[in-house]
Structures are given as C-alpha cells and as structure tokens.
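Hi F.,

I've been meaning to write this up properly since the lab meeting, where we talked about keeping a consistent format for the predictions we share between groups. The idea is simple: the sequence comes first, exactly as it goes in, then the structure tokens exactly as they come out, then a line or two of notes. No screenshots and no reformatting. I'm using this chain as the first example so we have something concrete to point to.
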Amino acid sequence: MKKRILLLFLLMIVLSVFAFFSWKDMSFSKEVLKIEILSSERASIGEEINYIVKIKNNGNIRLESPELIFEYPDNAIISDNEGKIKIMSSDQLGGDIYPGEERTFKFGAVLLGQEKEIKIAKTSVSFQPKDLKTRSEVSTTFTTILENAPINISIESPAKVGNGKTLSLKVNYSSNASYDLNDLTCYIQYPSNFDILFSQPKGLDNSQFDIPVLAESSSGTINVSGILNGESSEQKVFKAKIGIWQDGNFIVLKEATKSIEISSPSLYVTQRVNNDSNYTTFAGDVLHYEIFFQNIGDQALRDLALISKIESAYVDIESIDASEAIVDGNTIIWNASNFPSLSFLDIGETGKIEFSVNVSSDLSGDANIQNLNVKNSVTIGETRQDFITKIGSVISLEQKFYTDNRYFENSGPYPLETGERTYLTIEWAPKNYYNDIENARIVTALPESITFEGAYGAGKEITYDENTSEVVCNIGSLPAGSGVKNKDIVCAFQVSIKPEIADEVIILLGAAQLSGVDQWTNITLTAKTNLLYAQMSF
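Output, unedited:
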C-alpha cells in the first residue's frame, strides 16, 4: 500500500513539472515582438513607394532564429523582380534579436490598379524565444488607397440613336504622366445587338487595341462605327478600359462607360451616292449625294431644317454644289422656305435633297495614310444619321528593262542585233497609295520571241509557265504607301531575245497587270502597264 502511495506521489510531481514548463511555453506573450509597416496611405497609380518594416524586441529574453515574410499587394511591380512574396532568413535579418533591439527593412514596389482601389501589404515574423521549444509568429498589414491614374479615357457619342441606325463613337485616351507609358491595351465592350462596321485603327476583333507607346502628355482616339438595334427607350451601355498586361493578367488603369438611349424616331433618313447606297469612291471622283427622309411618325411634321455636314479632309469643300441651300464651309443647310417637303411632311411622305462635292485628286497627306473615308452627318429634326463613304486605294505598276548587271549578269548587244542573243532584266515596281492590299500579284505573258531565263530572289515568288508563257509575281501583302512613301517592292526576272529579222523596235513585253484586294473597301483593284519596247541596231 505504501509503495502505491509513493508511486502516485512521484507521478504527481512529474505531472506538475510538465504542466509548469507547458504553462511557461504557452504563457509567452507574442506582444514581446512589436512589428509594424510604415508607408504611404495614399499613392498615385504607377508610383513607386517604399514599405518600411520595423521590428523590435520589447521583452527581456532573446528571440532566436527569426524569419520574416513580406507579401506585396496584388499587381505590384517589384523592384528586385524576386516575386510577390519575399522571405528573409535569420542571417538576412541579422541573426537573433536581443531585448530592446530594433531593426528596419525596406521593400520597394510600383502599385498598379484602378482609382480608389485598396492595396494591402502583409508581413509576419516567426521566431523561437530563448529556452522555449515552440516557435511564435506575429503579423501585421498596411493599407494604401490608389488615386490619380496616369491616364484618362472617355467615350464620346450621341446621347440617343434610332433603332437600326449607324452609330459613330470615339474612345479618347490621354496621358497625364511625366513619362512614356508603354505596352498599353484598350478594350471596348459593346452592348448586345451592336453590329460593328469598322474601327480605326483596326483592332483585334474590333475590340482590342494595342498601344505600344503613349508618350508623355500625348493622346489618341479610337473610332468605331456600327449599327445599333434595340427597343424604344432601351439603354445601351458601352464600356472602355485601358491598362497593361503583367504576368498574364490584365490590370485596368482606367475605365469609362457611356449609356446611349434607343430613341423612337419620327424620321427615317437614307443616303445614296452616285445612285448607290454602298458606294466606294476614289481620288478625283465627283460625289453626287441624294438624301431621302421619310415621316415614319404618327403626326405630320412642319418647318423642318436639314443639315448635312461633310467631315473629311479629303474633299474639296469649295466644290460643294447645293442648289437653294446655304453653304457654310463644310456645312450645308436646307430650310423650309425653299423646300415644300421640309415645310410640311405628312405621315408616310418622303422628301429628297441633292448636292455634289469633289474628292481631292491628291490624298497623299501624311505618310502611310489608310482607311480613308468621307463622312456625311445628316441632321433633320431630332434625327441624326452618319453615313460613311469609303475611299479606295490607288495602285499603279511600272515595268522597265535594264541591260546592266543590276540583278543578273546580262550580256549581248544593245541596241539589239539580228542573229545575236541579248540578255536583259525586267523589273516590276508596284505602287500602293492609301489602303493595305492583300493577294497582290503581277501577271504578264511573254511574246514568242522572248525566252525566260530566271527570277531574282527578292523574297517574292516569281513563277513561269512554259505552256502558257505566263510570268507571275505573287506579292501577297502590299502595305499602304508601298513604293510611294515607303521602300519599293520589286519583282525582277531575266529574259533573252535573239532577233531573226531587223525591225526598228521589237515588243519586249506585253502589258503587265497588277491586281489585289483593298482591305478597307474589299474591292479588287487592277492596274496595267504599257507595252515594253526594245530598239534594234541599224
């Protein structure tokens, strides 16, 4: 019995000692280590800020093997490119932290996001108090609110548009930064039942527009045109956002929205140019406009005025011919006093006005201009309708021959001599003025007296068909300005000729034809050269 009591007593002593040390471990206060983050409570988007992490041992025991973890806010650009989470070992922190000792560490980052977005930085320190077996950890956070985006964006459009009418809108963006903004992207989100006609510049799916560089204090515009359908009084919302890509994520810097109401028009407006509702014009063309308007409302209309505004730098405003209208620069006004259909337009009735204007013969302007158009904005009553007449490109082709060794080693007499073979080089130089051309190719047929010798390897595929004597140069893409503002695209090949009879001149090559599809107008364009003659020696 006494033995059992002694064993029980010893067991109680062991349990008490264990409980004492367990209580000692558990009773350690984490507040012994103070940790805080010092930084800016507000920061401009794109601004680089520093986070100062301060740690201090407020206790009376040494804190051993400390380790610090700092987590940057989402979408931050880290100055040392070491990742979003930075871990500092005990050696990097300076080893054990003694009582009363304070240490500071700095972490720099550029914050990205939208205005008023909250960015949270986090940090924690784990450590082992001296003579204790368990590790402890303390943590804290710091919040920064973003403001003052380095870029502005807005959507410009009419407040109302009729169902099924053409809508033109502009997305304007500008920089207010004191440095260049690189690799920006603008996304435009369209409402349902909006059918895009075109965008300028041309974007990916007409919704993604890449902006490689937006220089300091500069600006840009994206023009979009389409047909908007919807119910009367329905609100259609367009959204645009601009930002940058980082690690596969798109970070929005600024966004804008625009609400457009589907109105119930009382007038329906249509246009024909040169008797065609989808006319494509060219430099030097004369445009004859017919504007039709019909009362589709439920009551007669009186004392109307019709205003037509030609918005294009590529027409001759001085050539506007509009009988009995007021012409003020690029604006033409017809009023009710001169047109009975404007004075009184009964339900279902239709009226018409006409005028003409000349397209400029020289559209060269700045280098590499493309996707040109003539915009006519028609306003009558509360109805406004924009009409776009696309301007097609102009292409041409020049063919020459050379006797020197420009592309090949030529030989033989020139002027040509009877019974002597002469080797010559044919050169084709296509020109494209305004819009990008695709599927461009040059074709000709060699005369019987001409022998095809070989093609010049300039990256363009030149083929010769012995059965048809046809020479083809497949150019493919012919960008706007090729051979005009930009470097010439050249197709060259060598031929030879051995005249059998003497003649004053010999046809060396027939007319060559350049063709290709205008990517702006979707029209196939063609251009032909003159015959190419060679001289004989007498």
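Notes:
The radius of gyration is 39 Å.
The chain has four domains: 26-147, 151-263, 267-390, 395-535.

If this format works for you, I'll send the rest the same way.

G.
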